[in-house]
Amino acid sequence: MPQFLTTSEPSFETAFTALLGLKREDAPDVDDAVAAIIADVRARGDAAVIELTAKFDRLDLTSATLAFTAAEIEAECAKVSPEDRAALELAADRIRAYHARQLPEDACWQDEHGATLGWRWTPVSAAGLYVPGGLASYPSSVLMNAVPARVAGVERLVICCPTPGGVVNPLVLLAARIAGVDTIYRIGGAQAIAALAYGTETIAPVDKITGPGNAYVAAAKRRVFGRVGIDMIAGPSEILVIADADNDPDWIALDLLSQAEHDESAQSILITDDATFGRAVAAAVDKRLETLERRAIAGASWLNNGAIIITQDLEEAARLSNRIAPEHLELCVADPDALATRITHAGAIFLGSWTPEAIGDYVGGPNHVLPTARSARFSSGLSVMDFVKRTTLAKMTPGALAAIGPAAERLAISESLQAHGLSVRARLDRLNGGAE
Amino acid sequence: MPQFLTTSEPSFETAFTALLGLKREDAPDVDDAVAAIIADVRARGDAAVIELTAKFDRLDLTSATLAFTAAEIEAECAKVSPEDRAALELAADRIRAYHARQLPEDACWQDEHGATLGWRWTPVSAAGLYVPGGLASYPSSVLMNAVPARVAGVERLVICCPTPGGVVNPLVLLAARIAGVDTIYRIGGAQAIAALAYGTETIAPVDKITGPGNAYVAAAKRRVFGRVGIDMIAGPSEILVIADADNDPDWIALDLLSQAEHDESAQSILITDDATFGRAVAAAVDKRLETLERRAIAGASWLNNGAIIITQDLEEAARLSNRIAPEHLELCVADPDALATRITHAGAIFLGSWTPEAIGDYVGGPNHVLPTARSARFSSGLSVMDFVKRTTLAKMTPGALAAIGPAAERLAISESLQAHGLSVRARLDRLNGGAE
């Protein structure tokens, strides 16, 4: 049984603060190793990538075999069952439809002086998606990263996915094909991130890198940030369920376990206004853990990082939720829409008991790449916006410059930036006939 | 005279690539020092901030004097001339009007199965703006950071601005008051960033930190990223002017110098389709440099980092511009709107010869915090979007879950995430009457 906290107890605030600050992950310090790998790929390109892949993935490649061929992809995709294929296509369609609504609009207007102002959005030219190999090789993540990039209009979209020992996940290749990925490289780790950021003889550099990865991948993304754009550095996954007593404890238990089974460092928290219900959920979790395939992982996560919190009412639950700023928030209450209006920080909200979080992982439509570790206080999940950028536009007329130019000149002088002021003054003088 | 390149020459590609890769800044490695400062502030709070301020800013503070009082702010603001005040207010009004249009819209719709989907935007609760002290203490930057935060609806907005030796810039305080900043702390450096990120006894932590700073501030922002959100790590400023021969060389020279005067590592590039005009601009720059107050800085920047590039036509100029992905781009050509449609990567575009870039620094309306060092390939200038975040929403009905749940279950099983699948299956079974 994990922590069982009650807000009315005097010790609550201390225990809750400790829960907020709980360090769930001990990231190994791989920064020096990663720096060396990046330097090696920059210096030696393909040769370095090939050597590192042989070393870490026990896979012998050449420049010609870094990428899957169309025939290889076709052969792997053919292994996927029609049912799995249909499920992937349904997911892709729904993710595409949701993200298509995120395309931001250009703007252009004239102000009262006749100046034209506005902005324009353009897609990133090339994006690289990292897809982990092995156990954490999730086709759903391919869709969640690649579909928004395609919707944004990214021209060149590539994937790096290691295939340790040559083992390929056909569903990953099929997901990439469904999402419209151009090229799939069978490389991974910091060497893949370096190749994407700096390019090699075979791999053209990209402008933006997204996708999850292990400590090496995360450290490499941090290092190449600035050279290219990156998405967030994701931490372990987490869920917060706010549930009233009018729920099936087993449903809620499964929702909590669906995060816990990801990873021992995942976190599942239940907040309820009914202590009896809270205990019933704890019992249901224990019962499900008896037979769950990943019970070792899920059990450790639940025991070490999980919590059940009993509040006076749902209003208090919402306040605690805002302090947690959860990645995933389920509102299993009678009026979830009303409670949602009290939520100020959350990556994704799942409204009502008929919306298990797993729907959002696969087929809901919203993205499943979401801000972890309380970063929903200041950041958002992955979206089309991550693959576009805005150029602001301004166009003065002589009249507009005459109206607002003097203020710019004055501020420039106040900041001791004379040339700034003169660049305005020279034009104003022309208007006044002074410099002709 | 800086580099003078002509695209028709065989050596051009090599020279242009070198220009793109030019390393203009030698950032000192202050990372260890910054790590120690952050650890100290986390451990000792106010006491550490006060000691570090005494050491670096030669200023003795107490917890009670970390922030300016209302009376102090009032007294400083009273020193500002009515003309400067009016210019700041005009700038603030225009920046506010521009950024108000950036407020993103919530969305909510029903799909064909009756599921409700959408998203909601909420402001960051608390933001901290860093404002450098001394020479680079720009009131315009206060407006450019604080106004978008206020427009976004940020509840608590604070500034950290060091006052070395106690010297205060009244315009900075006035800009902060005009922008609606709540509290101004007279602290700076890595200790200010640490205080904003982790909080002290006196300074409540914030969720997002923006604003420029020296190497210590930049390193500290990198380190606290994740704990809080940050804006970009800005590099030295740069301008690209594309101009045809139908321009006053002196205007273009002043526009180039208005970037060059910022900093020796700033970069100013002219691209023109007329070599004679290019030489005329070079001569005009030299002439203006003779009398410019900051001629030492501007001259060094122009000589070391500047360039004049002669192209066959404006179409080629646009292509080169897209490879540069400039922070500021002036299009001083007959039809700037047409040429702008060829531009795919730029932080801000200034259309036509009547729009000197300096207008955008102060009173145009768009933000002057823009992506440097070619990062306009993948990122945007500061905006209201930096102070809001999106929560995605999904609400299934039993019917919607019946329609799409089986696909989620299948994908969960394919990813060996059994509890994910079961959380859907338990509900589907209820619908089928199986589990009642």
Word description of this protein:
Chain A has 436 residues and is an alpha/beta fold. Chain A has three domains: 31-230, Nitrogenase molybdenum iron protein domain (Rossmann fold); 238-378, 3-Layer(aba) Sandwich (Rossmann fold), CATH 3.40.50.1980; 396-431, no CATH class. Helix content of chain A is 46%, strand content 15%. The first copy, chain A, contains 17 helices and 14 strands. The first copy, chain A, has helices spanning 12-21, 31-44, 46-57, 70-77, 82-100, 139-152, 170-179, 189-198, 215-224, 249-260, 275-291, 295-305, 314-324, 336-340, 357-362, 398-414, 418-431, and strands at 3-6, 107-110, 116-123, 126-130, 156-160, 183-185, 208-210, 229-230, 238-243, 267-272, 307-310, 328-332, 348-351, 388-395. In chain A, the strands form three sheets. In chain A, strands 1-11-10-9-12-13 form a six-stranded parallel sheet, sandwiched between helices. A five-stranded parallel sheet of chain A has the order 6-5-4-7-8, sandwiched between helices. In chain A, helix 9 (215-224) links the parallel strand 7 (208-210) and strand 8 (229-230). In chain A, helix 11 runs antiparallel to helix 12 (295-305). The longest helix of chain A has 19 residues, at 82-100. Chain A is globular. The N and C termini of chain A lie far apart (85 Å). In chain A, 59% of the residues are buried.
